[in-house]
Amino acid sequence: MNSAWENKAAGYWIRLAEPRDLPLLNAIELAAATVFPVGALPEQVLSERLPLEVLRAGMQAESLWVALTSEEEPVGYLLLQVLEGIPLLAQVDVHPAHGRRGLGTSLIARGVRHAREAGFPALYLTTFAHIPWNAPFYERLGFVALPKEEVPGVIADILRDEQARGLDHRVAMRRSLREKDQP
After folding, report:
1. Minimal CB count within 10 Å: which of 9, 33, 127, 181?
2. Residue 79 is part of a domain; what is its CATH number?
């Protein structure tokens, strides 16, 4: 299950996270937050980081992947969580200095493959609907925005929590993992 993706031409590769990676992931998360337009995120959210124990749990569950440079420096990561039987792309971050090179797309493809191999029929995420490069990016990868009545309860709870933290304009998205439903 620890198969790595490599893009030697671009100098990056992806593998499951290892303990040495965990202390470096929060810096990627904080740097990634800086690309949002001024005022798009509440000030307190700009400094939020996933707790180390959440990252460690993802690593132990083999559902935390890192994108690395050829020097093995982590520059992006993806955390997939299963909540009440529903797989969720809980966090996807790429350091802006390494953005626009396909790392986010490759990380998400790895999460999609993992969820499909685990037998899940769909994969979920929450994201911003009003930021041009957020929801549209996921749409290009096969995710579709869900009407409120189709949002699973645990995902609706996440949206409510995000709203309470001042994150407006959030939407739940789903990607079918069935081959016949692929774009």
Report:
1. 9
2. 3.40.630.30
CA–CA distance from 80 to each of 59, 86, 89, 130, 171 (Å)?
A: 10, 10, 5, 24, 18
Mean pLDDT of 133-158: 95
**Burial class for 40, CB neighbours closer than 10 Å (0-12, 13-18, 19+):** middle
Q: Helix H segments across 35-100?
A: 52-60
Rounded to whole angstroms, the Cα distance separating 83 from 90 reads 10
Two tokens, residue 138: 């996921």
Mean pLDDT of all residues belonging to the chain:
90
Q: Where in the sequence is the domain holding 170, given as residue range(s)?
A: 5-181
Q: CA 5, CA 14: separation in Å to the nearest integer?
A: 5
Q: How confident is the model at residue 7 (pLDDT cuts 50, 70, 90)?
A: low
Q: Where are the alpha helices (DSSP H) in the chain?
A: 22-33, 52-60, 103-117, 135-140, 153-164
pLDDT for the residue numbered 2: 44
Q: How many domains does the chain have?
A: 1
Q: Strand 12-16 vs strand 74-83: parallel, antiparallel, or unpaired?
A: unpaired
